[in-house]
Amino acid sequence: KRIARNDLPRFRVARGEKLCGYEITAHYPGGKITIVIHSDVIEATEDHPERLVVAFQEIGERKKWEEQKSSEVNDLKEERSLRESFVSSLTHDLRTPLSVARMHAEMISRKVDTGLHAKCRNVIRHIDVVDRMIQDLLDANKLKAGEEIPIHPCEMCLNDIVEDAVKD
User: Fold this and answer.
1) Is the pLDDT of residue 74 over 90?
2) How many CB atoms lie within 10 A of CB 141?
3) pLDDT tens digits for 15-33?
4) pLDDT interval class at 43 (50, 70, 90)
């Protein structure tokens, strides 16, 4: 916005007003310049009359840098939001066909002989492993988003876990 003549920094300082970090952008035909103004009054002494001190600092480059960083932060926030949305959609879309595959494997295991039954149970177990991996991905996404994840502690046999890992 345009500044009234009496509100220009030089007139404010001349009136004895102290400026501290007063930022102003001056527009001219070739572009613009942004400066910060600081001023103070040096009191009169026996040897010297009262004096005004005004310091100007050009901050155009800093302003450009701040705008660039602000833009980058906004881009990163948008990217994070898209990533969280993508992960959430992907995990949901993966769970549906896994549930169908598990259901069919269970139906087949009920109607086949023992040899095939064991293989169906193995397929079901691996589907459950993938489902747990998807749940872990969802939980990690929730943690990144700042949400809490429920923890349900229970007793487990470490030997069984190691044996399952070795079988896999």
Assistant:
1) yes
2) 19
3) 888 999 988 888 889 888 8
4) confident
Distance (Å, rounded) from C-alpha 97 to C-alpha 2? 64
Three-state SS letters, the chain: CCCCHHHCHHHHHHCCCCCEEEEEEEEECCEEEEEEEEEEEECCCCCCCCEEEEEEEECHHHHHHHHHHHHHHHHHHHHHHHHHHHHHHHHHHHHHHHHHHHHHHHHHHHCCCHHHHHHHHHHHHHHHHHHHHHHHHHHHHHHHCCCCCCCCCCCCCHHHHHHHHHHC
State residue 99 phi and psi, 5-degree precision: -65, -40
> Each residue of 78-101: pLDDT tens digit?
988 888 888 888 888 888 899 999
**pTM to 2 decimal places:** 0.48
